[in-house]
């Protein structure tokens, strides 16, 4: 039986954009490029408790797309 991994946080080194990606199984899925600037330079780390619970960045990303 697979053991789920911790949520991962991808942060763009160029513009500072970040996204927390919850993991469903033992395979880690992360974005390949920044959704804001298109850069491929992403730093990956385990998301902390505050990262996973913070909806502000998600809401700001939605508002910026309008």
Explained architecture:
The model has no long low-confidence stretch (mean pLDDT 82). The chain has helices spanning 49-53, 56-64; strands at residues 8-12, 18-21, 42-46. A hairpin with a 5-residue loop joins strand 1 and strand 2. The chain has a single domain (8-64), classed as Rubrerythrin, domain 2 (Single Sheet), CATH 2.20.28.10. Strands 2-1-3 form a three-stranded antiparallel beta sheet, with no helix packed on it. The radius of gyration is 12 Å and the shape is globular. The protein is an alpha+beta fold and 66 residues long. The longest helix is centred in the last third of the chain and has 9 residues, at 56-64. 21% of the residues lie in helices and 21% in strands. The chain starts with 7 loop residues before the first strand and ends with a helix.
Supply database-style keywords:
66 residues, alpha+beta, Rubrerythrin, domain 2, 21% helix
Outline of the structure:
The protein has 66 residues and is α+β, with helices and mostly antiparallel strands.
Backbone structural class: alpha+beta
- In CATH terms, what is the fold-level topology? Rubrerythrin, domain 2
How many helices? The count is 2
The count of β-strands is: 3
Distance between the termini: 42 Å
